[in-house]
Structure formats: structure tokens, C-alpha cells
Amino acid sequence: MAEEKDIIGAILSNPIFSNFHIDQVREVCKYFHKVNIKSGLPLFREGEIGDCMYFIAKGKVGIYKKTKNAKDITKDNVKIADLQIGDSVGELSLFDNYTRSATAIAETDCDLLMLSRIDFERMEKQNIEFSYKILKSLLKILSKRLRRTTDTVVDILKEEEK
After folding, report:
1. Closest to 11 measured CA to CA, from 142, 136, 107, 130
2. Which of 60, 71, 129, 153 could make an S-S bridge to 107, C-beta 3.0–4.6 Å?
3. Could you give the maximum distance between any two Cα atoms of the chain, in Å?
4. For residues 128 and 97, what is the distance between their CA atoms, to the nearest angstrom?
5. pLDDT-derived band at 63, boundaries 50, 70, 90
6. pLDDT tens string 119-136
7. In the prediction, which pLDDT does 155 show?
8. What is the pLDDT of residue 74?
9. Which domain holds residue 39?
């Protein structure tokens, strides 16, 4: 029961679930698994096949992209994002069977909620309303990140023109 209470608390702290009622949160928590990751350990690595996403309930996660001839993840690669409580990571893995596009490293001890692709598909079959609300929120997050990436690319191209 403590595990369910922890999961409910973490779900309520995440903006993706801001439009869920408490009864819906109790129902949706059965699709999540609580995961604890120690500081310095990877949630996943670039190039692995993704099969789940995570919601950060406690801690900080760094996202790293490989550079040529990289040996050490945190020293030789480019850090592209800092994520914290309320953020999610690995969202695309719910929708495709492709490899991870970056490495996610716990930068502090982290409490995470994991949603696997299998559990999300089960949610879609059992309660389309929940999966729809989550998908809509994830699309907003992904579109915001894509816009930010596009702005960064434009800024880089402008600098190169000078």
C-alpha cells in the first residue's frame, strides 16, 4: 500500500496529470512502476531499444548525446538537457520501437515512475480516456521540445553565417 501511495503522490506532482481527478489517479497508478536509480547510473543509454518512459518524482536527470570517439558518457559527450521533478524522459519509446536517441543519467538519487509500452497499450485497451489525456499532454511536451530545438538550430546557423 505504501508503494501505491508513493506512486499516487508522484503522479499528482507531475503536470501531465493535472487534468486527472484523484479517483482517476488512483486508477491510473496501476499502470506505473516505481523505480529508484542511484546517482551516476543510467536510466537508459543511447542506441538501446526503448520500451518505457519515466516521470521524475524526485531527483535530477541529465540527458547526454554522443560525440565522435566518445569514451566517457558525462565527460566526452554533450549534455543537451537537465530534467527534474515533474519532467518526463523517454516518451518516444511509448510510440515506436526505435533506439534511444540519447543517454539519460541520474545526476542525483532519483525516484521515478516507469510506464512501459506494454502497460501503456494495456491502458489504451482498458481506459481510452486515460491514455488520451496522457497522449495529449505528451504531445504538448514533445512539441515544446521540438520548438526549442528548432530555435537552437537556427541560432547556431546564424552564428556560423557570421
Report:
1. 130
2. 60
3. 60
4. 21
5. very high
6. 999 999 999 988 888 888
7. 77
8. 56
9. 2-161
